[in-house]
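Researcher: I'm preparing a figure for a lab meeting and need a structural model of a single chain. I don't have an experimental structure, so a prediction will have to do for now. The sequence is pasted below. Please return the structure as tokens so I can convert it later.
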Amino acid sequence: MHPSLVLLSARLLDPVTGHLLPQTALAASGGRIAALGDDREIRALAGAPTTVIDLKGAVVTPGLTDGHLHPVTGAELTHGLDLSGCGDLEAVREALAGEVRRLVPGAWLHAWGLDPNVFGDRPVESAALSPVLDGVPATLLLFDAHSMLASPRALELAGVDGPHTFDQAAEVVCDADGRPTGLLLEDAACELVERAAPRPTRAESRDRLAAALRSMAAAGLTGGHVMDANGDSAALYAELDAAGELPLRLRVAPWCRPGADADAVRELIGRQGTGGALWRTAGVKLFMDGTIDNGTAWLEKPDCHGESTHAFWPDPQAYTRVIGELHRAGVPTATHAIGDAAVRHALDAVAGATAAGGPSVRHRIEHIETVPDDTLPRFAELGVIASMQPTHCCDFTRADHTDNWSRRLGEERASRAWRCRDLWDAGARVVLGSDWPIAPFPPLGVMAGARHRRPSRDLTQPPHGPEQALTALEALRAMTVNAAWAAGEEQEAGRLAVGCRADLTVLADSPLTTAATDLPELPVLLTAVDGRPTHRDASV
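Model: Understood. Here is the structure written out token by token.
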């Protein structure tokens, strides 16, 4: 049988050693790498149905995989006004005013990417945006996607007129008189208002998701570890997969929320392994805390406002019991843990589960934004994967610690920001991702941020914690080899070897010799998944 894809005149980059392979050509068949060799012998394998591409010396790496992203949620949340470029309150007001002028009367305004730093020392509340939003139902998602500002009209339409009680750590923030300020913390609170807003049709959701995934493929992504399965997510993936329109290989971990009973946990266990050709359910996502920026992280000592003192699970031991049950069932878990207390508790839960025996399971902790020294070696000791998003440090904090995240933590904890280097050196498996839509998904930007740790909007600014930078090879490994290991797929992915998946990213030059500050602009010439091109630049 002739191969489906042949790549010639290539530089094949090994992400383990950082060296180029001696071969210059590759053939893919049945979704796998079928042969490596020189141009002459690989070209001879091609037949009439084979796609043959002369790469003219371009560099081929194993397909880049985002270790943490939210495609369906992101496609929905990023449909609206992008406020991520607004550096101060006046810029936010100006952007909102322009959007209001474009709205038809009565329509809702949706915006995303709002940086709490624009409020300076002022409270984060909708009053700061009056009179721009007077009478306009509006939801403004803060950049962490764990909090939202709702306009007075939006609160009115949703019937939110005072504090609420939730089964998880969520809050409708109210003033001294019990009136909502507009700030909603965590999903349960945000959903009170979101339910009142118009929802996209199924066709709109499908089209937005398909467009987002095509953009990811064009940026060089061949796969992603999806950290939710909300709403119609699974059905949308299945629909695109069946139609041959799923351009990424997706590993999906549905959520387990506080209050999940035995039946809910059994249902999550039962969903494992379901999926299609290019997507499958594998693992469960849990939350141990919220975010530092909105005061809902779980810290060992309170932040400067006396906040971030509680776990997302009102009873942290209930979380521990769920981890144990999932571990016994052989289900890998991914726990959102940002604060030091949250990370410690998540590690303790895994330690208890593994000590009790059972199957070998690869658990993960997501984000790990600030941790003390004694936490670092436990990742390697327990085999817990460190899933990190360095662009959060780059774009949402500052080297001088004048940003909201750093001010809340204080100097000691802010100096322990995103300890990628220390975790790597301690023997942890570090996996990199974007957490899109929280930060941009292009993987070259993620790898660049892990190396330079500077604000992507202004690379002349000093880096935050330059001693925590990864090398170029380490950053590449973190989105190839380590991502495959985290998924239990190290024998079939993350390498350029016969028998491995033909998930490939082709770049104009080597990501190892391209300067970190130039890496985001390195052209992506070709992306292939399962031996099928999902993006092809006009130059190849």
